[in-house]
Amino acid sequence: MVLPSGSRLPSLLQTLSLIADPIAFFDQQSQRYGDPFTTRVLGINSPPVVFFSHPDAIQAIFTTLSSKLELGKVTDVFRPLTGNESLIMQDGSRHQQQRQMLMPALHGEGLYRWGQVICDLTTEAIDRWSVGSVLKIQSEMLDISLEVILRVVFGLKPGSRYQQLQRLLHRLLEDINSPTYSVQFFLPPLQQDLGAWSPWGQFVRIRQQIDALLYAEIADRRSQGIHDRSDILSVLMSATDAEGQPLSDVELRDQLMTLLLLGHETTASGLTWIFYWLQREPQIADRLLQELDTLGEQADPMTVANQPYLNAVCKEALRIYPIALISQPRWTKEAIELMGYRFEPGTVLIPSIYLAHRRADTYPNPDRFEPERFLGKAKSPYEYLPFGGGSRSCIGMALAMYEMKLVLATVLRQVTLTRSSEMLPVVKPTRRGITFVPPKEFRMRVGDRRGAKVLVS
Q: Is the model's pLDDT at 94 over the cut of 70?
């Protein structure tokens, strides 16, 4: 088997390089070896791992070759958090069946009905900001995102259970995204419950408390009925499979935790990047504000979300620094041919979202933040794939984009945010758990209020 060119360094060195600075790793490998390139980054006996960025190759992996590929156990790292019944743990017909049950809750009218709640939650956060204060934007966006999940996904109303879950989920998410804590999920031998004082013991006990609250909410919802409720949990509780069977309590719990994992950090990080770029490129911020100011104070959430430049700004932020750098790896089940190469069974093929978004033939001047790229002809799902693609694309992408646009528009319509210092340094993404975000040093100062421009439905 003749493989694409790639580094001849030992597997351990390649793996450490990828973990330490994945963006630098991808940049160096692609510049040196082109597309595709081969690595060995899965251990001492690593099979060949081949990264692709060409749209034709990505399309083949997602479509025509998909039946000859399998996902393996890449998502096992999330199992302690999401559980065995999570959508991301399934494959084949089981995955397809679950996805069909979940899709209605995350798309269409049921989703868009929550636009006003997203705007209101954002306004409540803005009201807590005092003029002249300096904000850690990432922290503020994480708080808003968690509130949206509790209200829109979990369907909770303010009260004791809401407050308990908010506190516990905040602690859990902060823990699993810290480097010293998250390493346990990648190294199963460290997953030892040695008591409440031990790192894994702390995780287990927080998870137990969260589960108790979620199961109590599910039980209350079953006993009280879910009529006229449109939150995602209630929609899932009314869903049935092809045999007419509803989701069990365990399945409901696992899907809720999956949506939390996939939707909290990613949405908040995307928003943080947008605020960073708007400070770097004030002419883009001015154009976006001009578009939003034409809407008037009575614009409904759907009208706001459909503004073309707002959409372009959000898409460009997810292009230039996608929150996930790769799409889900695939293992070849049988020999295949792709991009002029023949890959034997066991080879790992990985579409690189980061490199696909940096192709100069698709995106001229790819390092520049230019929302105008998304005002013309639409990009194909193999050129632009911030949420992955194929049958494994992120099921919550419609909610994520809707939330990003409404939170951004609500902030910009109500308050002016300025640089917290005279100079805005050039920043590079830093790892936060499984995502790549602006460094914690990125802050903004709250300026003048722009008026009570509350969105109403």
A: yes
What is the DSSP annotation of 383-430? T--TT--GGGS-TTHHHHHHHHHHHHHHHHHHEEEEESSSS------E
Residue 298 has pLDDT above 80, yes or no: no
* pLDDT over 70 percentage in the chain: 93
Task: Check if the beta carbon of residue 215 is closer than 8 Å to that of residue 237.
Answer: no
If one counts the domains in the chain, the total is 1
Q: Is the peptide bond before 371 cis (omega within 30 degrees of 0)?
A: no
What the block records as the tokens of 264 is: 């909290």
The verdict on residue 36 lying in a domain is no
Strands 49-52 and 348-351: parallel
CB 152 within 8 Å of CB 114: yes
Examine residue 218 and state whether it is found in any structural domain, yes or no. yes
Instruction: Quote the pLDDT of residue 32.
Output: 95
For the cut 80, the answer to whether the pLDDT of residue 421 exceeds it is: no
CB-based contacts of 208, cutoff 8 Å, min separation 6: none
Would you state the structure tokens that stand for residue 63, as one six-digit string?
Answer: 């479509």
| Average pLDDT for 388-399 | 86
**What letter would DSSP give residue 374?**
G
Q: Kindly state whether residue 228 falls inside one of the protein's structural domains.
A: yes
pLDDT of residue 423: 58
The per-residue pLDDT for 340 is 93
Here the CATH number for the domain that contains residue 259 is 1.10.630.10
234-247: per-residue pLDDT in tens? Answer: 989 988 888 888 88
Task: In whole angstroms, give the CA distance from residue 283 to residue 450.
Answer: 18
**C-alpha dist (Å) from residue 274 to 25, 284, 303:** 24, 11, 20
Q: 52-56, 154-158, 448-452: lowest mean pLDDT where? A: 448-452
Q: Can you tell me the distance from the alpha carbon of 215 to that of 224, in angstroms, rounded to the nearest whole number?
A: 14
Range of the domain at 383: 47-449
Q: Is residue 104 part of a domain?
A: yes
Q: CA–CA distance from 249 to each of 76, 87, 254, 278 (Å)?
A: 21, 14, 9, 43
Kind of pairing, strands 435-437 and 430-432? antiparallel
